Amino acid sequence: KIITPGEDSSILLGITRMSLLEIVKGMGMEIAERFVHREEIFTADELFFCGTAAEITPILNVDGIDISNGKVGPITAKIRDSFFQIVQGNEPKFKKWLTLVK
Fold this sequence. Notes:
Blueprint: E1 2-4, H1 15-26, E2 31-33, H2 38-43, E3 48-51, E4 55-58, E5 61-62, E6 65-66, H3 74-87
Parallel strand pairs: 1-2
Antiparallel strand pairs: 3-4, 5-6
């Protein structure tokens, strides 16, 4: 299950987040948009953040505590790999997201 702060939080409701949610839904993963308690960060199997500059970036350590044994987790890797395939134009299903610049 992917848990993300909801629209009522202070996160940016940007294109990358919207795209990520669409990708995750397409993978058949469950998404919960809700308040995330700080304690949950330390018990999560994996963490990542997303954004225009960050793209999909794993969070491997928080306050000196390793997340996912300090390695990129399989779910984060799958989402990140799919994201990069899409932005590189290698996923026909998502071609409509791209604009060719000459």
